[in-house]
Write a structure and sequence with these properties.
Blueprint lengths: L10 H8 L6 E4 L2 E4 L5 H17 L5 E4 L4 E4 L4 E3 L3 E5 L11 E2 L4 E5 L5 H5 L1 H6 L7 E5 L6 E6 L5 E6 L5 E4 L4 E4 H4 L11
Parallel strand pairs: 4-7, 8-9
Antiparallel strand pairs: 1-2, 3-6, 4-5, 6-8, 9-10, 10-11, 12-13
Length: 194
Amino acid sequence: MSAVPKLRLTPQEYLALERKAAFKSEYYQGEIFAMAGASDPHNLISINLIRILSTHLLQRDCFVYSSDMRVKVSPLGKYTYPDVMVACGKRIFDDAEQDTLVNPVLIVEILSPSTENYDRGAKFDHYQYIKTLAEYILVAQDRRRVERFFRQPDGQWTYRAFKENDDVIKLESIGCELALHEIYFKVPELLHPE
């Protein structure tokens, strides 16, 4: 018995399907990967981040996007949906539809048990191909912990973790700060720090 060959799509075929789909999917190397729904803490953290960043950047030439905006990792031909991202200055889109950004400066992923290894590993490796990306933020949803990766002029990434309720994360790429207690505002499971 012969195996059924996997269906491989071109980026154009993926985008045509994705733009009509009821659910979001990532695309990489001809394959489509369905995205799971988000938990209550995940949604609350995402909303908090979008609110905080939007307020800080209101009078600046920066744009904050939710997970409904796709990003393309151009050199790899990968399409994915970061939880939150920011673009500053001229926004560059993949095509005239303007639903796929190619030049974010900041990407935030909210970790879940099913995505944490991917977000820390292969996904971060892929994101590093985005030349404009200066900061990558990982936010835990099961405890107070935010991790910041910042690209240095030589291309190396520095790392720092934040765990205390009063910690403040300085986002150099967009010139603003995030307080841990604001990121986790109203997240029921994390109202009282350990």
